[in-house]
């Protein structure tokens, strides 16, 4: 045997030994290596062990997540057994965990298939695993943001439990009139639970099923548009329903910005359902089928809070601006119901804030043209006491007072508080949502009790618009 032939045999043996050693995770002899980590720090030394979690050597341990994707890919390919397609699957799995390494991972998958076509099912499984892992990361981040929001809104020490089951009689809030079957002004300040993605999907499915059943009961077919925060059912042209859905999303984000919610945070139970009827007769039929109730005279919209659920129902009256103002008003009630906890603001603020949102959400709102002049005229009569309106409430039937004056005075009062201290108003809402009596919270944030607030409102609007 010639020396050259002996050299070739030894070379092949060494190659097989090197590959086998690397495949088992031991690098023999240790491999010198120098690379810059993502932190900018240089890693230099010899590698003695490796696996698809990282490397180990004279420098200590270093997970692949410490490396830039190109460097991790290059070094791992040098250490792994390039003949085994299964190792390329593991390489791809590792690369999918690194930011910006998807193209490298896809290249590793192609190399795996080239070496062994029987690995196709493993590729399918890997893609599913990666998709689920990334979904879980997004879910965890969302839930963490929601929990942080709940802590800031209702209080970090407040107990949390599952969303309450729907009650037999939903709390309903109407424009211009208040139904008899309503909840007290201040339900328990129990924080809403933070749901998983699966629970949110289940809630949304249940909400849609309810709406489908109601529409079936009244034998009506509505177009359906699912927006970011709402599901709209409307017996209107589809293009008009889509426009309404976009305007509803815009309104939600306007209110969310007022209260500094994390961008894109959906506080609804699944999503809120909105049912828009083209006629008053259809609207009343839906109300009877869904809630076994008849809207009060003059009410063209209602917001139903059924446990954690929010359902808005309205009909498109001839006055387009009044319809839109009503829709935004009722949707605002749904938002406030789901904000932090179901604890309700005092009636003047609950309705006044809904009117304020309607006034600020679109330029042609009827709120400034109707509510504001009514409130100014009432205040300037000289004999009326604003504090009496602040004491009205749903529970004892005193709300909204003669000629529904509570809405106008509530709007003016909220507008004044927002102009005085917008941040303070937001903190006051959080206080009430956390269970602090509203007047105590008012003194804390503005320095006024209800009587003093009444005098401030009257003084402010007696001569100024």
Summarize the structure.
The protein has 465 residues and is an alpha+beta fold. It has 3 domains: 3-133, no CATH class; 170-341, 3-Layer(aba) Sandwich (Glutaredoxin); 345-465, Neutral Protease, domain 2 (Orthogonal Bundle). Helices cover 54% and strands 13% of the residues.
What features would you describe in this structure?
This protein is an alpha+beta fold. It has 3 domains: 3-133, no CATH class; 170-341, Glutaredoxin, CATH 3.40.30; 345-465, Neutral Protease, domain 2 (Orthogonal Bundle). It has 16 helices and 10 strands. It has a 6-stranded mixed sheet with strand order 5-9-10-8-7-6, with helices on both faces. The protein has a 4-stranded antiparallel sheet with strand order 1-2-3-4. Helix 3 packs antiparallel against helix 4 (102-115) and helix 10 crosses helix 13. The longest helix has 35 residues, at 120-154. The radius of gyration is 32 Å and the shape is elongated. 38% of the residues are buried. Residues 1-24 and 156-186 have low confidence and may be disordered.
List the helices and strands and how they pair.
Elements: H1 3-23, E1 26-36, E2 42-51, E3 54-57, E4 60-63, H2 69-79, H3 85-96, H4 102-115, H5 120-154, E5 171-174, H6 197-217, E6 223-226, E7 230-234, H7 238-258, E8 272-277, H8 280-291, E9 301-306, E10 309-315, H9 320-338, H10 347-361, H11 366-379, H12 386-390, H13 405-420, H14 422-433, H15 438-446, H16 450-463
Parallel strand pairs: 7-8, 8-10
Antiparallel strand pairs: 1-2, 2-3, 3-4, 5-9, 6-7, 9-10
Helix pairs in contact: 3-4, 7-9, 9-10, 10-11, 10-13, 11-13, 13-14, 14-15
């Amino acid at each position: 045997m010639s020396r050259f032939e002996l050299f070739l045999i030894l070379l092949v043996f060494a190659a097989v030994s090197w590959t086998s050693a690397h495949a088992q995770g031991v690098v023999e002899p240790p491999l010198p290596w120098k690379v810059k980590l993502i932190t900018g720090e240089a890693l230099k030394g010899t590698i003695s062990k490796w696996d698809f979690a990282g490397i180990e050597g004279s420098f200590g341990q270093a997970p692949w997540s410490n490396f830039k994707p190109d460097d991790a890919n290059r070094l791992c390919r040098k250490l792994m057994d390039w003949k085994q397609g299964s190792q390329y699957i593991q390489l791809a799995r590792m690369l999918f965990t690194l930011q910006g390494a998807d193209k490298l991972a896809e290249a590793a998958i192609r190399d795996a298939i080239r070496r062994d076509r029987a690995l196709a099912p493993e590729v399918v499984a890997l893609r599913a695993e990666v998709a689920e892992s990334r979904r879980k990361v997004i879910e965890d981040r969302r839930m963490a943001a929601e929990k942080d929001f709940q802590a800031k809104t209702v209080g970090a020490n407040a107990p949390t439990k599952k969303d309450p089951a729907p009650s037999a009689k939903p709390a309903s809030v109407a424009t211009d009139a208040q139904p008899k079957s309503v909840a007290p002004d201040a339900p328990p300040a129990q924080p809403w639970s933070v749901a998983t993605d699966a629970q949110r999907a289940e809630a949304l499915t249940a909400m849609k099923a309810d709406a489908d059943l109601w529409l079936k009961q009244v034998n009506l077919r509505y177009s359906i548009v699912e927006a970011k925060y709402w599901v709209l059912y409307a017996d209107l042209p589809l293009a008009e329903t889509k426009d309404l859905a976009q305007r509803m999303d815009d309104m939600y984000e306007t209110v969310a910005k007022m209260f500094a919610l994390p961008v894109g945070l959906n506080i609804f139970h699944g999503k809120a359902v909105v049912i828009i009827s083209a006629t008053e007769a259809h609207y009343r039929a839906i109300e009877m089928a869904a809630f076994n109730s008849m809207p009060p005279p003059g009410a063209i919209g209602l917001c139903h809070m059924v446990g954690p659920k929010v359902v808005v129902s309205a009909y498109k009256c001839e006055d387009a601006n009044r319809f839109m103002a009503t829709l935004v008003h009722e949707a605002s009630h749904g938002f406030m119901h789901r904000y932090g906890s179901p604890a309700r603001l005092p009636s003047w603020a609950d309705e006044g804030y809904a009117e304020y949102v309607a006034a600020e959400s679109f330029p042609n709102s009827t709120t400034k043209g109707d509510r504001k002049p009514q409130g100014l005229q009432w205040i300037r009569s000289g004999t009326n006491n604003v504090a009496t309106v602040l004491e009205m409430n749903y529970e004892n039937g005193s709300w909204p007072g003669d000629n529904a004056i509570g809405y106008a005075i509530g709007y003016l009062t909220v507008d004044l508080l927002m102009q005085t201290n917008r941040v303070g108003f937001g903190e006051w809402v959080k206080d009430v949502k956390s269970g602090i009596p509203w007047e105590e919270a008012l003194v804390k944030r503005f320095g006024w009790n209800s009587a003093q607030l009444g005098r401030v409102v009257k003084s402010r609007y007696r001569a100024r618009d």
